[in-house]
Amino acid sequence: MDIKLARLNQITLECLDEVDQLKIIEKFTKIAIEILSADFGFMFWRLVDDNSYKLIYKSPKTPYEPRLPRKYGYNYKASKGRIPYFVSKPMKSLLPYMKSLAIIPIFYKNHQYGNIVLCFKKERTFTLEERPISMALSNATAQIITINTFHKKTERTAHKLLKQKDEFFNIASHELKTPVAAIKGFVQILKQKMKKARPETNPETSYFLDKINLHTEKLGRLVNDLLDVSRIETGKLKFKKMTFELSELLEEVIDGVQVALPYHHVSFRNKHRFWIRGDREHIERVIINLLTNAAKYSPAGSKIKVSLEEKAGCARVNVEDFGIGINKKDQLKIFKRFFQSKDNSQTSGLPGLGLGLYIAREILKHHGGELQFESKERSKGSIFYFLLPYSKYRIIKR
Ligand code: ADP
Fold first, then answer.
1. Are residues 149 and 8 in the same domain?
2. What's the pLDDT tens digit per position in 79-108?
3. For residue 398, which of 7, 15, 161, 294 sits 20 to 30 Å off, Cα-Cα?
4. pTM: predicted TM-score of the whole model, two decimal places
């Protein structure tokens, strides 16, 4: 009995992390066959809709196609009694296949999952000891099926909630896009009017307009990031294909970004020219994101070093900063959607949404490239780098 209980416990534990319900049923039918030394066995699953049963599993040695339970038959009696039901001399129609049988109903509270049917080719009597172990078998099967059902339900709910969240972001970002574009347009009109009316006559208004412009640009980028996340999720992010030279793009972006980052000095070291086939605008976005992050997460006055090199058949772009770095715990999560480190509170930059690195990585993946980072000790800065395949025959040393 102890050995049998130990085997049952072992199977129960094994089934705890089994996702496939059919496998659970198979394992419990097999252990029931083993524990009661049956010759073969099967399980009838109870269908809630019409109170009927279907054959859900039969062990490989089952010599015939079991007939579905009939009203007032053995299965019906076992289900009604809710406890294991033993038959030593079954009815004539079953005799060619078995001389005894045991039916173990599987119940959780008032709900019946089904019956495990165990069949014996020789006539036998059932010992007193076999009743409690059959009951334990029934309980263990019911527990594991219930856990599996709850787990599936929770998963379905979580999936539904995630889908609703994505839909919400998609709708919200679409709705935000139009007013942001309108504000941007009106600010431009006002700025032009101010220009004509000589800004030096009204420096305060001019200053405020510049601020509105800056923040609207920022808001526009956030809305764009949100839109792109839902485009990535639904496979709708569009990529144009063209050939462009990477070092030229880097120089252009660094020039542009340097104006917006007056408190950091961005240097660029480069020996090569690389022709890339891909979407120039998207790669530009990746570079802007790495540069603004480097500035956001490092102190004013510190350097940002950009370099371009050849690495294993790819162009490698490094963006090195001397800022807060990324602590060990965060290193595994850095590319996850909406992830932001708690260490960000040490920085003075405008907060983002934690989407830039996720989007950058997806863009690079689409180009057959990758985004990685190396972070030195905390507060010693980090190097974000990306690799992009380039056209082999157009590499010219400068
Ligand atoms: P955001 O900057 O908008 O929060 P990102 O996806 O670009 O979103 O970055 C995610 C997180 O990764 C940031 O919130 C920050 O915690 C961390 N991070 C990114 N770049 C750096 C960096 N250069 N140095 C330190 N931490 C960084």
1. yes
2. 999 999 999 988 888 889 999 999 999 999
3. 294
4. 0.67
